[in-house]
Structure formats: C-alpha cells, structure tokens
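Feature request, filed as a ticket because there's no other form

It would be nice if the structure record came with a short human-readable summary line next to the tokens. Right now we just get the raw output. Example of a typical job, pasted below so the devs can see what we mean:
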Amino acid sequence: GSSTYGDVTIEYKVKGADDSTYSATKPSKAGTYIARFSVAEDPNYNGLDYVTVEFVIDYYEVAVPSITETTYNGQPQTADLLTSDYYDILTENLTYTNAGTYDITIKLNDPNYKWTDSYELEKIVVFKIKKIVNTDNVLTSQNAIYGDDLKNFAILASGATCTTGTWAWQEGDVKVGNAGVQTHTAVFTPTDLVNYEPREVVVTFSVAKKAVQVPTIQSKIYNSETQIANISDTNEYLVVENNGGILAGNYNVCLNLKDSNN
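Raw output as currently delivered:
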C-alpha cells in the first residue's frame, strides 16, 4: 500500500509466533493475529519503523441441529437430522425401531467453524424414541364394604381390555381396609418393558361399615327352671348379657359389636 509519506508494507503473523513468521499473505483462518506496518524511507521523508496491531478473525458459528423425538410404533424410524454444508454426519445408521436414546455423531467440515456452544469439531446429537405410555381406563374411585378382599375388585372399567401387559394390585391379597376412605395402588406391568412404560394408578375406595345380621333367638317353653337364650359369641359380637329367667315372658339379650368402627 502507500501513504502520503511513502510506500506502506503490511505483514501478518499468528499472535505469539516468532517474528520470523511474518508474511505478506493475509490470514484467512480463524484466530488471533498481529499485523505490522512500516513505511519505506524516500528522499523527502524518513522511514517509519514497525507499528503493530492485533486483530481477530472469528470462527463461523454453526447452530447444533436438533432431532425431533418420536414414539415407538413397532416400525423402523429414521432420525430427521438435516444434512448441511457445514457438517458431516459420521454415524452411518440413522434408523432405529425400539424405544431408546441413540447418539448420532456429526463433525464440522472446516476448522474455521465452531458450534454455538463449543469449539470441538465433533458433536453428538440425540435421537430419542419414547416408550408408549399406557392409557387404559382405570377405575380410580370404587365402593367397598369392610372385610372385602381387594383382589375381587376390577381395576379396569367395564369393557376395557389390556393387550400389552397385565394389571395387578400392588398390595397383593389383602382386605380393602377399615371403613372410611382408603387408597390402593394398581400397577401395570408391560409385556415389552423396552418399548412400553410401566404405570401406577392410585385408586380411592369408599369403604362402608359391614352390616351385622341380628341373630334370631329360638323361643323356649316354661319348665319351672331358669332358662337362658341359646346364643354364643361370634367373630362379630360378644354376648354381654343373657340372664334369662324362670317365668314365661320376654327377656333381653345384650350383644356388643367387637369392632364398632367397622
């Protein structure tokens, strides 16, 4: 180049490199450089010694591509990874069937490029095939009576079927519980654990008290002796008063429930 005072020489080197590497070739790669300027001496002006300036050539930033998640459908599915002039796809197989997370490697094809979030050339992007989520119609609210067996209650609504696994009560073979509001967990276990999600559903039971049948006591005929009713304790009640009598007439028998809460 030239200036008002004489010809200008411009040379370049990588920052930190030896001065012997200065060159008139303009740098084109990303990096930090030093440019030095000098003006040659002429009959009218003295020459100008070197003046240096630091400058940077930035990397060209490339956005990391994303891959749309899909859901298992029993068929091969191909990652929708777009091709680009900026990177190469190193992973050969982009088609998968089972649910899972698959790493796909891509690589910038120019050292002057960088990813928006890092400087390494290679990058792993993820293709995810999600498991199928169970949507069976579970009876989440049911009515029961104290003493009922949990195993006797259906989990799915009437007419609903499950062909991809089995439903069971988590607690196994137990009673529904005391009178009041109780909860039990229904568990879905898929036949194919690779491609289907297990599921747990909490079911609320409104448990009513069990009605105890009042026993019928057989009448007796006067025999001039003290007689009492023919009744005994059971699993549900205690006989707390049964005095009877001698004379013909009605006599009280008092029973107490063993568990008045249920």
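Something like this underneath would help us a lot:
Residues 136 and 162 are 7 Å apart (CA to CA).
The first strand starts at residue 2 and ends at 3.
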